[in-house]
Amino acid sequence: YGFWPTAGYTWLRAGKGSVYEGGVRVPAFAYWPGMIEPGQKSMDIVHISDLYTTAAVLAGAEEFVPRDRVIDGVDQSALLLLGPGHSHRNYVIHYSGSNLKAIRHGDIKMVFTNEDFGGYKKPEFFNIARDPAEKMPSFYRQLNQLEPFMQIVQAHHLRKNRFPDRDPVRRIPMGYDHLSHLFAPTQREGHHYHEEL
């Protein structure tokens, strides 16, 4: 166990804001009597963005999911209804701010360190199924994993080039003008417009 100021005592490495398991792994519970079998435990990969797409599919509202932009979530209804092993996600990419810092693909996670490695950041590999606390990093034992991970990185960068990130919109929501003193000066000056509800 370790103590992390942002996570308290935990057996996972690091805490909130980190790309290690202590910063990205959270428990999730699903309850739907007659549809989801009780007592299941799954180690399948699910990302929070999957909740949007899954809810739309389960509600029969898939046609309302926008098609004019990238939707990061995948439909996880098969995992909920059929159980462990039916996730439609086999990898997830973790950012720290605007920097890609880690990728989990199946049971293997690659974390980019700050150590220089031939002009690149040297990666550490962890087998999350065997070492969820990420105490035993390896590089040479997992060297065969480097190429598949780099293919994921390359595909991700191509997608981001085609669909670049939008600048975050920070504004004072309509009806909260009386709290404008709580917002950053850049939000108060020159950006004082309202969201249309």
Descriptive overview:
This protein is of the alpha+beta class and 197 residues long. Helix content is 20%, strand content 19%. The protein contains five helices and six strands; from the N terminus they run ββαααββββαα. A hairpin with a 2-residue loop joins strand 5 and strand 6. The longest helix has 17 residues, at 146-162. The chain is globular and about 55 Å long. Residues 187-197 have low confidence and may be disordered.
Contiguous runs where pLDDT drops below 50 for at least 5 residues: 187-197
Oligomeric state, counting identical vs distinct chains: single chain
Mean pLDDT: 85
For the biggest β-sheet, the strand order reads 3-4-5-6
How many β-strand stretches?
6
H/E element sequence: EEHHHEEEEHH
> What structural class is derived from the secondary structure elements?
alpha+beta
Q: Could you give the distance between the termini?
A: 47 Å
Tell me the helix content.
10-25%
* Outline: globular
The major pleated sheet works out as: 4 strands, antiparallel
Total helices: the number is 5
Using the CA coordinates, give the radius of gyration.
20 Å
Hey, roughly how much beta strand do the residues contain? 15-25%
